[in-house]
Amino acid sequence: MATIERALNAHSLYWVKDDEGDRIGIVWGLDGAWRWTVGQADSREVDSFEAARRAVEAALGAPVRLRQRGARAA
Questions:
Q1: Nearest Cα residue to 16 out of 47, 48, 52, 46
Q2: CA distance 40 to 68
Q3: Digit-coded pLDDT (tens) for 3-40
Q4: 44 pLDDT exceeds 80?
Q5: What radius of gyration, in Å, describes the C-alpha atoms of the chain?
Q6: Secondary structure of the chain as H, E, C letters
Q7: Which conformational region is residue 61 in: left (phi greater than 0), alpha (psi within -120 to 50 degrees), or beta?
Q8: How far is CA 53 from the centre of its chain?
Q9: How confident is the model over 54-61, as a mean pLDDT?
Q10: Which entry of 26, 41, 65, 74 is 20 to 30 Å from 15 by CA?
């Protein structure tokens, strides 16, 4: 199952990764606009992170899991 996970040290940049952990796409938000892309396709704008997630799932033809990173102790 593919995953969407936040890039390290980023607030609104997420990698779409395949089952092997390779990056196959990206979801990002900037200035209130969200965009997404998978593979070599042009990026597309959507209204929200959730809309981007649904679009990625539609492009892949399968659900994606959101991987949450645990908080790290300083």
A1: 52
A2: 26
A3: 999 998 888 999 999 999 999 999 999 888 999 999 99
A4: yes
A5: 12
A6: CCEEEECCCCCCEEEEECCCCCEEEEEEEECCEEEEEECCCCCEEECCHHHHHHHHHHHHCCCCEEECCCCCCC
A7: left
A8: 7
A9: 97
A10: 74
